[in-house]
Amino acid sequence: MDGGQASRETELLDPRQGKWISVPSMINNRSFCGLAAVNGLLYAVGGNSGNETLNSVEVYDPRACRWTAAQPMLKKRCDAGVTVFCDQIVVVGGSDENGLVLPSAEVIFHILNFFRLNVVSSPVFENTVTYAPGRSTD
């Protein structure tokens, strides 16, 4: 994202050098996308292209120094909450193409390139992800 505009340009922080470095551009323009790192790969999830809300997923492999397209999410999501849990990417809420908040979550099983969609049982607030271990009595 460059000044709020969707962009393909990508920079990563190199902690050894203590500076940002340019890497190859993403496939699609994106702003307000979610990011997650799993097993040495960086995932860019959903967002907005400047013209539409996206369900596409791109994966950056720093060893190959390139982005590749992954299977798209089931729903188009912009500004969703994204976290990693047990090597799975969890995408919560976000807004659809009409700006409505989505009361659902998707799990990306990165090894299988597979998605599962669940409806969230309580309202999503500011697209945050919270993990609270415990047991349900339902």
From TrEMBL:
InterPro entries reported in the protein's UniProt record: Kelch-typ_b-propeller, Kelch_1
Keywords (A to Z) from UniProt: Kelch repeat, Repeat
Transmembrane feature ranges: none
Pfam families attached to this UniProt entry: Kelch_1
Superkingdom of origin: Eukaryota
Gene3D superfamilies reported for this sequence: Kelch-type beta propeller
Protein's name in the database: Kelch-like protein 7 (inferred by orthology to a human protein)
Lineage of the organism: Eukaryota, Metazoa, Ecdysozoa, Nematoda, Chromadorea
